Amino acid sequence: MANKQHMANAIRALAMDAVQQANSGHPGAPMGMADMAVALWGEHLQHNPQNPHWANRDRFVLSNGHGSMLIYALLHLTGYDLPIGELKNFRQLHSKTAGHPEVGITPGVETTTGPLGQGVTNAVGMALAEKLLAAEFNKPGHTLVDHHTYVFLGDGCMMEGISHEACALAGAWKLNKLIALYDDNGISIDGQVAPWFIDNTPQRFAAYGWNVIDAVDGHNAEAVSKAIASAKHSADKPTLIVCKTSIGKGSPNRANTAKAHGEPLGAEEIKLTREALGWTHGPFEIPQSVYKDWDAKAAGKKAEAAWDKTFAAYAKKFPELASDFTRRMKGELPKNFHQIAVDAAVSAHTKAETVASRKASQIALEFFTAALPEMLGGSADLTGSNLTNTKSTPNLRVNLAGDVVKTEDGKTGRHINYGVREFGMAAIMNGVALHGGYIPYGGTFLTFSDYSRNAIRMAALMKQRVVHVFTHDSIGLGEDGPTHQSIEHVASLRLIPGLDVWRPGDTAETAVAWAVALQNQHRPSALCLSRQNLAYAPKRDLSDISKGAYVLAEPSEVGMNKTHAVLIATGSEVQLALAAQKLLAERKIGVRVVSMPSTNVFDRQSAMYKQMVLPANLPRVAVEMGSTDGWWKYGCAAVVGIDTYGESAPAPVLFKHFGFTAENVADTVHAALLKQ
To answer: Which of 216, 333, 597, 610 is the most buried (most CB within 10 A)?
Structure first.
């Protein structure tokens, strides 16, 4: 019989010791949640420490990621490849035990948590992916996808607005396999939360359509386990288990205080805590009996072996579905993807349509969503503007019983109405990508990328394939005015390391941008698209678009033999550059036009290619309807941009007012040449 108290105290001891050794960290949360962890990890969690990537494992998210020593202790104790030496190196350079849990660094960590509220939102995305995969792949007598998503969260996650966005959607989607355990300790960094956090949390979640189990003693592992067991029987609602706990449980002088939250207990208090807990072992010492109680390797191996038998029977009866499931969970694209991408780009090039790049995106999506069942789209209440829906992506709907509604031909919905919830959408997409099986994409106006920004950053940090469709990308949207007109947004998104930002100038560039985004298995992308129509720019070939920048038009194409300067343009301004090229030719000035749909991608090209596109001996002028700061790194002699907010007026009026005319671009190039 396992000694649950010793199991919990092992977590408390490791948390205090690691934080003390690092002289940095948060011991209080792990100490307070230790009994909750015993209940979940000791009795309910379906996982295999020897294969952290087993497809049908339960997902566990520590949303209050500052309590990272909780999950590190659990991973070590249950048998993951996280030796005690890594716990001793807590918060040190290149250790597997960073200050906040990081996916891809520590085996068993499902998502990177730290910015509060995003972990629980990722969990909603994971639970959604599980529900949709189950609806898509499970067959009568063959249950292939069947696991839970568990999340621990605290007051900080509850206070962050994103938790409202995500948890409301979880209720609407009836994610009954999502179980959240709330560490209700009433303490944050500033002290007792009562003066500033007076929400009735159980009523709030009941209003979302959740099943709420209130007032559970979070230090009674049996009571918590019983609540989890009850939650697992919920047929049509996610569950919130409110666990009443004491932060820093076991510490005689720090328990229930803000001091337990974010600083080491100190050697003397640790000594007193060991005595109070009856823990007689030295720092980082765990008795074999406790290791034995925690060890999950045998049970995990048995659980995965049972699932392997289920999968083998499934594969025998449904070989194509089984193969598709395996491919998708690995994140691999179909073998014919390259041909699909070529077809999409060539079709755009052949038709040479004049459409807004948001429409060009939808045209490309028709190709890709038809061929890739893993593409899961959506929009933050702007579907008709973002154009993220296609013939292959019916709306996701869930019936009153909690089942995913299928179309007449048996397909599940693949386009999500997120409502006006940009931040929630972005972090839910991260969770979907982390779970595996789907490639999520979602749309909103570019100016609202500010709402999504921290989740976009997290996607880049976690190297997740998430595609953001940002439309209405400039003052070109006109009458809505400066609140909706993007100025600094493209430039600021380009600053996020690991994010590819595309601003395509026509249908072919948009198709290529989508193809590259889908091939980037370990990199998120942002597609910034126009509201206004853009003429097609004739091209000699399409092969260099995927390099982020290419020579679109040489001076010879407008009758000039010599090249005097290079015009660099993106998006809607490519047409402006081509028009200016003609005007300059009339002045006997030869200009090369370079289209640069992605500065990020171009910057990763070889020095030889960059030199070929932007010769060192020619002055450069950039044209983009946005902040000018980022262009100076290309050695530009001048930039035609906008460093103020916009105005409310029809787009053509604004273009003239802010100098986005072929005449002004030509004059700017001419002036730059005169300065030489």
So the answer is: 597
* C-beta contacts of 347-351 below 8 A and 24+ residues apart: 347/511, 348/506, 348/507, 348/508, 348/510, 348/511, 348/536, 349/507, 349/508, 349/539, 349/542, 351/507
Confidence band for 2, pLDDT divided at 50, 70 and 90: confident
Only one residue has tokens 């991260």, namely 430
The residue assigned the tokens 């997409």 is 429
**What are the pLDDT digits (tens) for 183-229?**
999 999 999 999 999 999 999 999 999 999 999 999 999 999 999 99
> Please, where are the H alpha helices in 232-351?
267-277, 288-294, 297-317, 319-330, 337-351
Cβ atoms of 621 and 628 within 8 Å: the answer is no
Residue 422 annotated in active site = yes
Query: How far is Cα of residue 238 from the mean position of the Cα atoms in its chain?
Result: 22
Asked whether 72 and 109 are in contact (CB, 8 A), the reply is no
Residue 555 has pLDDT above 90, yes or no: yes
Q: Which of the residues 269, 422, 509, 624 is marked catalytic?
A: 422
Please state at what angle helix 28-43 crosses helix 221-231, rounded to 10 degrees. Answer: 60
Task: Convert the pLDDT of each residue in 289-335 to its tens digit.
Answer: 999 999 999 999 999 999 999 999 999 999 999 999 999 999 999 99
Whole-prediction pTM? 0.98
Helix (H, G, I), strand (E, B) or coil at 299: helix
Chain CA centroid to CA 329, Å: 17
Q: Which residues of 214-236 are buried (b: 16+ CB within 10 A; e: fewer)?
A: bebebbbbebbbebbeebeebee
